[in-house]
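#lab-general

N.A. 3:47 PM
ok so I finally got the sequence cleaned up, no stray characters, all 217 residues accounted for. can someone with queue access submit it? mine expired

B.Y. 3:52 PM
send it over

N.A. 3:53 PM
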Amino acid sequence: MTELYNEAIAWYNFPLTVLLCVVVLYWIVAAVGVLGDGADLDLDADGDADLDMDIDADGASHGILSAFSAIFRFVNMDHVPVAIIISILTISMWVLSIIGNYFFAGAGTVLAVLIVWFASFVIGLFIVKAATTPLARGIRKMKAANKETEDPIVGRSGFVRSGYISRETGQIEIEMRGAPLIINARVREGSARLKKGDECLVIDEDEKTGVYYVKSI
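B.Y. 4:20 PM
back already:
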């Protein structure tokens, strides 16, 4: 136990140990019901992560954003709450970093530690994928089962909530009975991007991914 503690507070593992402590503290606070309403990562009515990325993506920025969008889809962030994904990824990276640095980089260079961190991140993504896929599948089935009792979304109008909507990313907010509904939205190929605050119309749904397609009004 002492050896594990020493590894956890060693400089090459300490940043991830701090991050793990933050995650644990988050769940403790959430469990006692005093989590503030001003969190940057909200959970919308569909259980999806609300990631408001106000990035003017063109050129290199567009490529970076597309890469992040691909990662988000890979780890099922379109369906699984982001807090769960971050928690699983953090725990995975911490464990892998402890093991990797203990055997390979503990007494090595900064470069060796960075390689262990990067490998831990990549492997951690696959662990998150494996852990959240059943949950994402269950959430999709629940949405499908509830559609008959829900107000239809296709045909409704809303406003762009994210920084913009493109073929790769975006969210809109729709006024529904009760709380507003936030959904993941995209524009069709060949359509212009929509900006934050633009009014749009939901024209179709990709039932496989749960993503809705919109056009400008």
